[in-house]
Amino acid sequence: MAKNEQETVLAVGLMSGTSCDGVDAALIETDGKGFVRPLAFVFRPYGAEEQALIKRGFEDGRSMTDRNARPGSLAQAEAMITGAHIEAVNALLALEEVGGRKPDLIGFHGQTVWHDPGKGVTVQIGDGQALANACGCPVVYDFRAADVAAGGQGAPLVPIYHKALTASSAIPLNYPLAVVNIGGVANITWIDADGGLTAFDSGPGNALVNDWIHQKTGEAMDKDGVFAASGQVDFLALLGLMGNGYFRQAAPKSLDRNAFDLAPVQQLSLEDGAATLTAFTVETICLGLEHMENASGAAAQMVVVCGGGCNNPFMMAQLQDALEMPVMMSSMLGWNSDALEAEAFAYLAVRAQKDLPITFPNTTGVGKDMSGGLLVRPKP
Fold first, then answer.
1. Check whether domain 159-333 has CATH 3.30.420.40, yes or no
2. pTM of the prediction?
3. Is the fold of 9-157+339-376 the same as that of 159-333?
4. What is the mean pLDDT of each run of 10 residues along the chain (380 residues)?
5. Measuring CA to CA, which of 7, 16, 241, 356 is 20 to 30 A from 51?
6. Which residues contact 294 (CB under 8 A, 6 or more apart)?
7. Domain ranges of the chain
8. How far apart are CA 118 and CA 115, in angstroms?
9. DSSP secondary structure of 7-76
């Protein structure tokens, strides 16, 4: 789509996901509507001590009711996370392809440590003002709070960016189309032929498998799905996992990273546990797509997969085998799967600055289209 030069903004987006692997930082040019041009991306990994601090933060944040409180390790984790994001912005802007250009705006998601929209609480730690001061640039942060306060789920937020990307695709796409993002949690964006959006968290993504591998080996993940590929699915344990009432709820709906635990697979071997948890992710994605087919009366004509799950060839092969429609990796459309969520928060920041909606009744369950986020400017 053609752009209006006067309307475009150079924006940085930052994402620290539930997989706790590090900070994604992306630079895009966008008008916050139909024009998006990704420009650069960098990844700032978390070290082992930083990951351990974040995971302590998950435990200390569990069941929070005051989203402004910082119990236990959360204050320390917030300071560390903010510093890591500052480093990520500096590394991004130092890239040769950026050419010394300065962003007009930064979209800062922060780190979700507790998400319980049923009780009106969502907590993302990260100091937006400190980030703005350090980078000398306006920052939009706290994207989820307004939606949750208005009765929405506060998640997922990326669907409107998925729609912008698919609308500008150079490759002809068939609708209905589903974009499946496999991060720590997996979510589905369903785009109808008329552009209508529905979105929801389908279930666990990589988080459970990552936790299992870390518990058993100390490694961060099942790289390439090697352990899962050499194991056998324990169908009794899988049935127990699939029995969670969440999967019977209608969309839109959302999950906290810690909504599921490893108890059903604890008696299994390393390999069988990895195989069972990988199957759990695949089966719940399939269940979510089946739910949308029943709700809309039409099956997805194609599925585009993005997120960290794209880097797990065993999981992708299992998903392809389980689905009857074409499954495309996002890279086939020219998308950088690793950068996608960071790009989305750059895009959402621009929309928020322009008071355009970022959440919708069929994506978060909120009563009406809503903008969101808090804008802070650097202080001396």
1. yes
2. 0.90
3. yes
4. 65 91 96 94 96 94 94 97 98 97 98 93 97 98 97 94 90 93 93 93 94 94 96 97 92 85 96 98 96 91 93 95 91 92 97 97 96 96
5. 241
6. none
7. 9-157+339-376, 159-333
8. 9
9. T-EEEEEEE--TT-SEEEEEEEEE-SSS-EEEEEEEEEEPPHHHHHHHHHHHHHHTT-S-TT--TTTHHH
